[in-house]
Amino acid sequence: MPKNANAEAAWNYHEATKHSYTSVRTNPHFLDFGNQPLPFKIYPALEPSRMPTEVRQTGVAALSAIAGSVPAQTNAAPDLEAVAQLLYLSAGITRQRKYSGGEIYFRAAACTGALYEVELYLVCRELANLEAGVYHFAPAEFGLRRLRAGDYRSVLVEATGGEPAIVHAPLTIVCTCTYWRNAWKYQARTYRHFGWDNGTMLANLLAVATALGLPAQVVCGFVDATVNGLLDVDSQREVAFSLVALGHDPAISVQATPGALAEISPLGFETVPLSRDEIDYPLMREMHAASSLGSAEEVAAWRGSTRLGNTEIPNFPPPAGPVVRLQPLSDAEMPRDPIEQVILRRGSSRQFARTPISLAQLSTVLDRATRGVAADFVVPNVVPNVQDPMGSQLNHLYLIVHAVDGLDSGAYVFHRGHGALECLKHGNFRDQAGYLGLEQQLPADAAVDFFFLADLRPIFDRLGNRGYRAVQLEAGILGGKLYLAAYAQRLGASGLTFYDDDVTRFFSPHAEGTSAIFLVAVGHSVKRRRLEPE
Ligand SMILES: Cc1cc2nc3c(=O)[nH]c(=O)nc-3n(C[C@H](O)[C@H](O)[C@H](O)COP(=O)(O)O)c2cc1C
Q1: For ligand 1, what atom is nearest to the CA of residue 497?
Q2: Whole-number Å distance between alpha carbons of 325 and 230
Q3: In 371-455, which residue ranges form alpha helices assigned H by DSSP?
Q4: Which atom, in ligand 1's list, is nearest to the CA of 193?
Q5: Which of 18, 195, 300, 386 is most buried, judged by most C-beta within 10 A?
Q6: pTM of this structure
């Protein structure tokens, strides 16, 4: 049996990395600022070629861009300017701030601790003003370092078992995650952050791709060793986590080249060490190894398992209690600030005013952010059904509403297929929300807290250990969309961490048996100078 199918490793990892009231008090970890990792991967021997820095305005409203996608039959390929735009608005440096400990280069997407452990690589055919090759994106220089010259897309086709989106993509972006850069602060819980931080970045990337008229598809199924080998990353430290196929060229279909990796020589480029020394957290590498796929056949079978079966979400009952229908703003009513403006405006709220948002704002956030993610782990909506008309979602949204005009305060569960919120209990839960969000003030002061919970059992049955990567990544993508939907309406948002089992308990009995995956708070930000990350 392939290792991935036995989900014991994912269960072990999940249990071992839960936060609880006790665990955070008994963990002797402290931050060694003298050993803080560099936020950039630097290849000293490679000169980056600079990209155009002018941000082209698509003019597409952020609330449209996050909700839509471009059909795959479209004939579309990015040019260098579009590549620059995609990279800048998903992983570029958008602001920098000095603080007591140095300087932080904030990026376009939210990231735990502003530690930026996700690197981006391009694998492309010849594009307008960009030669075919494998490139590393260097945010500090806003440039590309070419690691390999020539068209290597066939390696990705082989690695993904012939995933159609990859076969037809003129460009695929490979996202890798670097353990130590985030584990310096978050230790073994970092593997969860890989999904979150990669996900917020992908929310931006997908929205910008849509605004640029490019089809985009997230691909989680690939032979890990092949993709890591193509990039020549040291997989003890840095690992490919997701791919995004961009554009579509029906005329060109790249053939898989079996054994392609054997013909690819290692690059052996030197990179600047991140820190004086690194601490290894073997639990994460075990989790990664157990969720790795070993062959194109295994990948194809894994992907097949996402296409089979019941499109209804197991164990997710239809509304049983009172429901409130969402009342989203129509296209004509909604704010039309363009996606690039909203991304540049975004920055996690550091304090919320306890002032209400409207039901229309909340409804618009929910409606626009949850219209589906184009990803290979999502069961497409083959047979439309009322429960799940937009294709499956691994995460379910539970809300604590503190201050929404037109909605009683209380705990709710979101029924996506019904466009409705079911009330689980009424009451003022600000104190509980603050506690659940790791005793922080932000979730207590927000207007509404969105908790992501997932039933991991059917996910692991279907996707094995790799389902754990998928569920965290999906949460990050949806969380990133929540951020953008909030900022598009001039609200604020912040991702948050949480006390795992207490979150499940709070939403039980409805959430019985599910696991807490992620948390995003939304409300009116109190403007103040940002000094340092959380
Ligand atoms: C997944 C995730 C979890 C986060 N958790 C917290 C948190 O627990 N507390 C907090 O104050 N900020 C949290 N943040 C916000 C980050 O600190 C913030 O994104 C980072 O400092 C970068 O700043 P920016 O979002 O303003 O660009 C989180 C962000 C993300 C994406």
Answers
A1: 8
A2: 49
A3: 430-436, 442-445
A4: 1
A5: 195
A6: 0.96
